[in-house]
Design brief:
InterPro entries: ARM-like, ARM-type_fold, HEAT_type_2. This protein is mainly alpha-helical. It has helices at 19-30, 32-43, 63-73, 82-89, 95-108, 114-119, 126-140.
Length: 141
C-alpha cells in the first residue's frame, strides 16, 4: 500500500461515486485499517487527515456531515476499533449521525449495540426512531 492519499491522487473517486466505491478506492490507496481509523477521527469530530473525496464528500462540509460520512465509511471498511466508533456515534448530538450509526450497527452485526439502539426508539428525531425500529426488527429476525 502507498504511504498516504498523496500516493494515489490519480485514483480519487469521482464525486458521483457510490460510497461503497469511494471507500473501496480509499482502502486500495490507504489500507483498510487506516480508513477505519480515519473514519473514527471523523466521528470524533477531529480534522480530516485525508481528502473527504475518498468517502464521497467535499471539503468544507458541516461538522455533522463529516461525522455521518465517517460512520457511513464503516459500512464498507471494517477493522479494529470500528465497533467502538459505531457505538460512540449512536450517542452523537446530531440525528443524522445517530441514524447512520444505527444502520451501520445492524449491517455490521455490532450486537452489543442493541441496548443503545433500543434506547433510540424514544429519540426526539423521527429519522432516528425509524432507523432504530428497522434495526431492531432485523436483529430479531
Amino acid at each position: 500500500m502507498g504511504g498516504g492519499w498523496h500516493d494515489a491522487l490519480v485514483t480519487m473517486p469521482p464525486p458521483s461515486a457510490h460510497p461503497r466505491d469511494a471507500v473501496a478506492a480509499a482502502v486500495r490507496a490507504l489500507g483498510e485499517q487506516e480508513v477505519v481509523a480515519w473514519c473514527g477521527t471523523l466521528v470524533r469530530g477531529e480534522p480530516s487527515r485525508h481528502p473527504l473525496g475518498w468517502l464521497g464528500g467535499t471539503e468544507g462540509w458541516p461538522a455533522h456531515w463529516a461525522r455521518e460520512w465517517g460512520v457511513r465509511g464503516l459500512r464498507y471498511a471494517w477493522g479494529a476499533g470500528a465497533d467502538a466508533t459505531v457505538r460512540s456515534a449512536l450517542r452523537d448530538e446530531h440525528p443524522r449521525v445517530r441514524a447512520m450509526a444505527v444502520a451501520v450497527a445492524v449491517a455490521r452485526g455490532v450486537d452489543d449495540a442493541v441496548p443503545l439502539v433500543e434506547a433510540l426508539r424514544d429519540d426526539a428525531a423521527p429519522r432516528v426512531r425509524a432507523a432504530a425500529e428497522r434495526a431492531l426488527r432485523r436483529w430479531a429476525s
